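We give this protein:

***
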Amino acid sequence: MHEAVMVNEVLDNLILDDQGHYLDCTYGMGGHSKAMLNKLSLKGCLHVMDRDPYSTQLAQKLADRDKRVNVIKDSFSNIHNYFKTTSINGVLFDLGISSYQLDTSHRGFSFQSEGPLDMRMDQSQGLSASEWINVANEKEITEVLWTLGEERHSRRIAKAICKRRVRKSIDNTRELADLIVDSVPRISKRHPATNSFRAIRMFINQELEELREGLEEVASILLPGARMAIISFHSIEDRVAKRFIQGKDRRRSEIKFKLISGKPFMPELSEVKKNPRSRSAVLRIAERLM
């Protein structure tokens, strides 16, 4: 059962005009979107985006019931194709993957169940994790595991992958997870494949590139005084969001933002107990200045 994270914090700090136009860049299972709709008046409008076909199917069912909803199947790096500048009252990014994606074995996101090693948000586009991991050289695999997964055994794992695929291609999640377990010492309760699976998923879907470009896109469509909320689940994503809000690492935008509350929001202990997957969530809300 998927549960949206820090819903009240998002609503209280993002929805400032119940007649405004809002954008949920990451519909997922729709938890945040449905809560946002409940806070909007009948004159409000909610645009929802996702590149996962299953999520956009769910979103379309919601749109069929509620005419305030507009569904866009695309990556949020392409926001400029759908919105005019200074036209949106608030934007939400939820950068976590959904429980559906994690728990559905044929999507290949999780090391906890056996399935094809896919990991694509949209399985109709791009290389799957299996296709990439069976052709990438050892140096490239090492770099991905180190930079995106912060995996300190990245070299050892990359070497084991390249050695194994000489005999047989690595085609499913269990094969990769077992290979990683056999390659590195287990020094904590955390599964040894956690960082590597995250890194490969982020690389296959170009998640950091999408985030950097998406933030640039969103900055231009927000009205002055409007806000964006960014929920991240590990330090790499949060660092990108933080530095963008601070005006650093920009590509185009010179729009200034201020961080609401002066520091990021964290889930309450009661939420973490109810939804353990929320424990690593960090929510930053920033307001566009004039």
